[in-house]
Amino acid sequence: MDTQMLVKNLIEILQKLPPDLPVMLPAESGVEQPRSVYVAKVAKARHDWAGTPVGQFCLLDENTAEETTGNPFDAVIINSCLKVL
Q1: pLDDT by residue, tens only, the chain of 85 residues
Q2: Residue 27, C-beta contacts closer than 8 angstroms, at least 6 positions apart
Q3: How far apart are CA 5 and CA 81, in angstroms?
């Protein structure tokens, strides 16, 4: 993970911005408002999807173990979908 953003980096960036701006996230066909923020286990994807909306990391669950490589780690996910706990 060469250029991973840590929570402290995100906080530093957000503190410099006007506090009344909405938060938007890039999506496959535009931008979306975040609906959930959570911590999840992720790992690097076996395929290099750089430059696509697929991403270079996979959320780990029982279906993704064979699609990943490297050690899993926790990451903060800002998502445009609701996280069902």
Answers
A1: 456 788 898 899 999 999 998 888 777 777 888 888 888 888 888 776 666 656 677 888 766 667 778 888 898 888 887 766 5
A2: 53, 80
A3: 21
